[in-house]
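Quick start: what a row looks like.
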Amino acid sequence: MEKYDLIVIGSGPAGEKAAIQAAKLRKKVAVIESRGVVGGVCVHTGTLPSKTLRETVLYLAGLKQRSVYGVVCSLKSDVTVSELMYRTEHVIQQELEVIQNKLTRNGITVFGGHGRILSPTQVVFENETGQTRTLETDVIIIAAGSRPYRDTAINFDETYIFDSESILKLDKIPQSMIVIGGGVIGCEYACIFAHLGVKLTLLEGKDRLMPFLDHEISDTLTYLMRKNRTKVIFGDRMEKLEIKDGQVCLSTKAGRTLIAEKALFAMGRVGNTANLGIEELGIKTNKRGLLQVDENFHTGVAQIYAVGDIIGFPSLASVSMDQGRLAAQHAFGAKDSRLNTLLPYGIYTIPEVSIVGYTEEELNSQGLLYETGVARFYELARGQIANDHDGMLKLTFCPKTKKLYGVHIIGERAADLIHIGQAVISFGGTIDYFIDTVFNFPTMSEAYKVAALNGLSGIG
């Protein structure tokens, strides 16, 4: 029986980083990947494909908008999904090579097949031909990821009705589409297809998009989506979704009837816990099949850890990487550190949204005195050059000490810009940093100085 110090089940961002961290600690590591190809959902059907598709759509939308610069461009009307995904295939292959090279360079063995935990020290995997092998190990890290949640009452035929992964298999761009769910994934895909000229209807049961966002950012996103021909319906839920006469027909609890060519069901994800053997070991899961872990990502069962999307919120590739790294460190006693709680969120809608730190609502709930400072992107020279008249950057801070509490951005390069604010919050900085610092001109980063000066004028 082959013996390893660590076996990782899953090779997405969490599993990859866990394996590499253990290898750096001179441990013998094996990774079991059910796809037979490393990368996980992040590379194959999730983050990379959807974000690359978004960049393609932005490029095409940019062609249509270049009359701003006195250039008139036209785009063929029958562009297909396969053409839009052309760049995606190149990105995936290049990323796969990078990941595989990292694993090989660190001496990590990769087994292609399904992994099942027999005991805290034994894992069996079955390859594509049905052959099985049992491996012995000291530590197990589960990083099997998640998949889209599918309502059992819905027929996901992948011709008319799709989930957030099968939507990438669309044969052609439809004239109309219904998106059920106004969370991160639902909003991202709604923006992508709306910018391709699809008539979009988004149904969200809550009273606003992504309530964890600052209310101004959420409201601005709603306004801009509606401005781009997306019908957003709040406070109503799906009652029935069926196919009638070659179209999707959705009935809502409030009595609405929505009809479109295609429908995307985006109501969260469930953990890939089936056939892992966790039930027999007593590892706890919630109703979505997500594993429960402590602050060190330990499942409570022997030397078995779980990281990444399979443990649920926040289900971000960036966070999953650190979870994997920290779990491996803890498992082998290398370092007793905790995941940094100051997490930036990047939401790849059109326009982009990114946040870090406290919102106004959170500060109010804690009874903390605060002030805000806002920079509108049309105030920036770079904003004018980029033709971003709708973006904004908002700061929340203490009016007495000027300590920065949070940064909330919607607009051009928001997910990149957020890290400036994240660094200042991490070091307990104040808005004086933005005021006293020279920023390159013209840049979008200058928004920090404009917002800080705006906030300072409110307490002056």
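That is the whole record. The mean pLDDT is 89. DSSP finds 14 helices and 22 strands in the chain.
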